[in-house]
Amino acid sequence: MHLLGNSVIIGVFAALASQSVLAGPVGRGSGHAGGIPMPLDFKRFEDAYHKNIRASLGPRGCTRRSIAVRKSWDNLDDATRADYLRAVKCLATKPPTMDTSLAPGAVNRLDDFTYIHINQTNIIHQSGYLLPWHRLFLWQMEQALRNECGYKGHLPYWDVPRFSEDQTKSKVFDGSMTSFGGNGAPVPHKAHRVTLPGLVIRNFSLPMPAGTGGGCVTDGPFKEFTISLGPVAKEVIDPANKYGYQPNKRCLSRDFYDPASKGVLTWANATTIVASKNIKELRNNIEDLWHLNSHTFVGREAADPFSTPNDPVFYLLHAQIDRLWAIWQGQDLQERTYAIDGNRTFLGIALDYAPNVPRSLATIEDKMDMGLGWNPKTKEGMPATEFGRCYVYE
Ligand SMILES: [Cu+2]
């Protein structure tokens, strides 16, 4: 990747890349209202990532001209935001592609995604597959939005640390028609624990704090939106519908929980993540400081570890996680692109429904199940500029 010959060729192409984020400083900070600007220490990591990705691109395949730039939702223009939301709703009007006898509750194209996420949850979280699986999952959604519903842009990310003090100040959650809508309606409810099905440790549970919403989203384009699969993680699991595969038509609900964001989803923690010394530290930092907290902040549907893609904001939430991984990888592409850490199941716990799935350490040669018959090797989900992927985060 750092061959001298290659970088000479790249130099020739640099002039062609003037619209690319890779060609110069990112237009960030000035001109964008609201939020906490990116601090210099984080920006240093981002700059090194851009520089190293730029140096890695050759004249063929993923090039400086063809590379897609995934931007912050808050930095998109209104027309692009509206077009993205239109395309999400377009997928919700299309029939599922999957075999619905596996999950009769799958009623639209978005449910193909939610189904496979439910089906794979105990393999792709708290495991070695977390980052590569979700990288390919997001890419599949980006492809579906573009190829099946005519979306012209690329997958945006939720600029979480910029709004850690008040996420409703972000255009992701400001409640306008070019946002994902705001909080759920306030309904009285208490903190509780939910059980995760599928692990041999019976009644493995997670805390669900009580936020300030809890009910249906009442503004923005998903006000009348309905979902059907899940929920899965519940106080008491129903053995007849353990994974929420049966139809369960309901509204999209949220339950914003500020303590999971304020002082937590901060630039300081984002910097700690991208500054991780090795893949083990990175994975632990992402899980402990970021991943669960960002789901918990949104709450309700988004906080169900299995059916969380029911909330369309899931894809922007995970794009931020994908971005933090990409920036970390981008500090040393040669050493870090294919670095893997973690077991083959959730925390290395055996699965009650699939006792043959080993709990041992994941490798980059392991196949992953992306749904609809796509079983790529883990390594295919690791670089963002190879194996058909070609994108960079602004
Ligand atoms: Cu997930």
What is the overall pLDDT average? 92
Bound molecules: copper (II) ion
Low-confidence stretches: 1-20, 23-31
Span between N and C termini?
A: 21 Å
Per CATH, the superfamily is Di-copper center containing domain from catechol oxidase
Radius of gyration (CA) equals 20 Å
Estimate nothing, just give the exact number of structural domains.
Answer: 1
Number of helices: 9
Tally of strands:
8
Strand order of the largest sheet: 1-8
Write a structural description.
The chain is mostly helical. The chain has one domain: Di-copper center containing domain from catechol oxidase (di-copper center containing domain from catechol oxidase). 32% of the residues lie in helices and 6% in strands. It is built from nine helices and eight strands. Strands 1-8 form a two-stranded parallel ribbon. Copper (II) ion binds at residues 117, 125, 134.
Features of the shown structure:
394 residues, mainly alpha, two-stranded antiparallel ribbon, di-copper center containing domain from catechol oxidase, two-stranded parallel sheet, binds copper (II) ion, disordered N terminus, 9 helices, 6% strand
SSE diagram, text form:
Elements: H1 4-14, H2 40-56, E1 68-70, H3 78-93, H4 109-124, H5 130-149, E2 184-186, E3 192-195, E4 205-208, E5 214-217, E6 226-227, E7 250-251, H6 267-274, H7 279-298, H8 314-329, H9 333-336, E8 391-393
Parallel strand pairs: 1-8
Antiparallel strand pairs: 2-5, 3-4, 6-7
Helix pairs in contact: 2-8, 3-5, 5-8, 6-7, 7-8
